[in-house]
Request: fold
Amino acid sequence: MPTRNLIGKDPDQRVKRSRETVIRTTLELLTEAGLGGISVDEIARRSGVAKTTIYRHWPTRSELVIDACSQIGAEQETPDTGDFEGDLITLLTNLAELLSTARWSSVVPSIVDAAERDNSLAEIHSRIQRDHAAPLRTVIERAVQKGEIPKNTDRSTMIAALLGPLFYRRWFSREPLDAAFVKGIVQNTIGT
Amino acid sequence: MPTRNLIGKDPDQRVKRSRETVIRTTLELLTEAGLGGISVDEIARRSGVAKTTIYRHWPTRSELVIDACSQIGAEQETPDTGDFEGDLITLLTNLAELLSTARWSSVVPSIVDAAERDNSLAEIHSRIQRDHAAPLRTVIERAVQKGEIPKNTDRSTMIAALLGPLFYRRWFSREPLDAAFVKGIVQNTIGT
Reply:
């Protein structure tokens, strides 16, 4: 993520720390109360960072939220188990675990919601989404190169077929994301 | 939906009309501003229905929102094209169209978000979700009975495999829900 709001190219530790505190506080408030519960007043109060300092780094609440959101979600490693099915099981099992336990998973709906009414947030959210799908994309490309799946595989449809069902269970039907489910989705998608 | 907030068993037309006005206004505000933008004050102002009347029908904002939300989403017909693939294409094409155009589709994220922090809303949201999947469930059961798919098909995984990818594109990756995508998801799921 470009740290476009940093003051200068080599900000001192104090500036860096207060930025980190503000971002962490913003994420905490997002988790507790969703985007509707976020105000710069409350972030200043809780973080102990002055409102003027916050506004110097992020001229609007939206920019702060976008900055905080772009740091949401753990980086996923790209697995290399030796075969496509194994890689997918590893990736999706890891994702299922994150969806069930990681704090950001309860923040996501509030970003999705705000993105309905805020184009810049919608854009950054789509970008975060694509970034998060990068390891999956790598695994798919490798399978194509190794001839495990056809060259003309529609990558984007395959990604939706793999991630969509997990998101559906986490945020819509609220059913468990267990190992049997992950295996079912992977086998469904690769046709074993 | 049980109209448990109705006063008496045979409410007169005036009560019915003012209830409908309040629900319609609530849905309008949900669409425009999300759940965060909803207050009973604002609903009273815009609907012209007195706050005291609103509170008589719905003692809390949450109950009103739940009532409004439970009326979200068009009833889908259960198709009967003669074969499983045709039924699924019909159902999912219809859903893709609704997700792209229907007003409730921009309200859903705000319910999903609120459900993260409100158990009664989470419960009603899961129920709405199951209700909406009913035609799909019927189509799957019919295919099992006709021997088009195995008796031991995991219905719930299949529903997630069919609906999840559409939800993923609508609310997460924001990619188009076109005919090729719907066909890809259906063929992926039924293995043709």
About this structure: Chain B has ten helices and no strands. Chain B has two domains: 11-69, 84-190. The mean pLDDT of chain B is 87. Chain B touches chain A through 46 residues (CB under 8 Å).
